[in-house]
Specification:
The chain is of the alpha+beta class. The chain has helices at 73-84, 108-124, 130-144, 152-159, 200-218, 231-236, 241-265, 269-285, 292-303, 329-343, 359-362; strands at residues 5-14, 26-27, 29-42, 48-52, 92-98, 164-169, 174-179, 186-192, 308-312, 319-325, 349-353. Helix 3 runs antiparallel to helix 4, helix 5 packs across helix 7 (241-265) and helix 9 (292-303) runs antiparallel to helix 10 (329-343). It binds adenosine-5'-diphosphate (ADP) and magnesium ion.
């Protein structure tokens, strides 16, 4: 019997570029230090058993079929997607243990999918390319679980590298490494706002539909094809005021991602910070996906001296990132905890992060 193998892949946080992915646009994630780990041990009886140190359970290989299901589908779905693509894989024990917080907007689902595909690729000697690894992991989520997420999460988890952000073009699905090494006197803070994603799924679908409708009305394949310079003209051609707001967010957000890359290239952290805040304002006013908890965290960060702050992730809660002078971190932490207490919100969880290693960097490729 072959030895067991381990696949590891991290969670991610998107620095800027929100709701641009399904508009064929740009995103700029970094990998986190929190990592999911999957141990794969082959077994001779054609059974797939999946366990999670966080959640428990198991499933049989012949019962695998696409559609919405329980947590183990994110892992078993990777095996299903590999078999769909003609890779002969037998029974296996997949034991999962992840430090990525579940459902916090840090992509715990992609972390476990990517750790699984890395483990199975290695175990079966498939030699999948970086593209194929991402396609298979994304298929587990989109096709097996039936969760209609865009292409960012799995590519961020797999392809990010230490001290870099990944500029991902969601049309060509190609990435470019952008140096993201914070100077000593700055910290990137994550505020887990601990807000439930109430009705988030319906809002997400509505935003996607509005963008598709607006692109059709403007006669472009996707909103990515509208340049900022052409925005006033495009907005004037839209009859629906909701479409106007959604298009303004997507088009300006795409431009902000590219401006952010320029700011990083010239080491202008203040310009980078301003773009984060402009992104938040746009999500709040035009895309209408923020909630009082995230707005409060952003306002408190800015009042505490942040260079910039924004909600990250799909919206309606989740995580706020803030770029802060290191010597203001304690004061900010106290201020945000107090501000939440005054409003009766659950105590937020605060941590700092750097741009960590992606799964492919953690798992040496042959
Ligand atoms: P996010 O990816 O932002 O954390 P999702 O809703 O996309 O949020 O994914 C969270 C889901 O992924 C969980 O509800 C669970 O089904 C699955 N999951 C993530 N991590 C684990 C884990 N360690 N053990 C079992 N299931 C997990
Ligand atoms: Mg997810």
């Amino acid at each position: 019997m072959t030895e067991s193998v381990v696949g590891t892949s991290p969670g991610r946080v998107n620095l800027i570029g929100e709701h641009t992915d399904y508009n064929d646009g740009f995103v700029l994630p970094i990998a986190l230090g929190h990592v999911a780990r999957v141990t794969a041990q082959p077994r001779g009886d054609g059974v797939v058993r999946v366990s999670s140190a966080q959640l428990g359970e198991s499933v049989e290989l012949d019962a695998l079929a696409p559609g919405p299901r329980a947590w183990w589908g994110y892992v078993a779905g990777v095996l299903w997607a590999l078999r769909e693509r003609g890779h002969a894989l037998g029974g296996v024990d997949l034991d999962l243990d992840s430090a990525v917080p579940l459902g916090g907007g840090l992509s715990s689902s992609a972390a476990i999918e990517c750790a699984t595909v890395l483990a199975l690729d290695f175990l079966a000697g498939l030699g999948l390319s970086a593209d194929d690894l991402a396609v298979v992991a994304q298929a587990a989520e989109n096709d097996f679980m039936g969760v209609p997420t865009g292409p960012m999460d799995q590519r961020a988890s797999l392809w990010c590298t230490t001290d870099h952000a990944l500029l991902l073009d969601c049309r060509t699905l190609t990435g470019r490494q952008v140096p993201f090494a914070l100077p000593e006197d700055l910290v990137l803070v994550l505020v887990d706002t601990r807000s439930p994603h109430v009705l988030a799924d319906g809002h997400y679908a509505q935003r996607r539909t509005a963008c598709a409708e607006a692109a059709a009305a403007l006669g472009v394949p996707a909103l990515r094809d509208i340049a900022v310079a052409d925005l006033p003209d495009a907005l004037a051609r839209l009859a629906d005021d909701e479409h106007v707001r959604r298009v303004r967010h997507v088009v300006t957000e795409n431009a902000r991602v590219l401006d952010a890359v320029d700011a990083l290239a010239s080491g202008d952290w203040h310009a980078f910070g301003r773009l984060l805040t402009q992104s938040h304002d746009s999500m709040r006013d035009d895309y209408e996906i923020t909630v009082p908890t995230v707005d409060l965290a952003v306002e408190t960060a800015l009042a505490s001296g942040a260079l910039g702050a924004r909600m990250t992730g799909g919206g309606f809660g989740g995580t706020v990132i803030a770029l802060l002078p290191a010597d203001t971190l304690d004061a900010f932490s106290d201020a945000v905890v107090q501000a939440y207490a005054e409003r009766g919100f659950d105590t937020p969880r605060i941590s700092t992060t750097r741009a960590g290693a992606g799964g492919m960097e953690l798992t040496p490729r042959r």
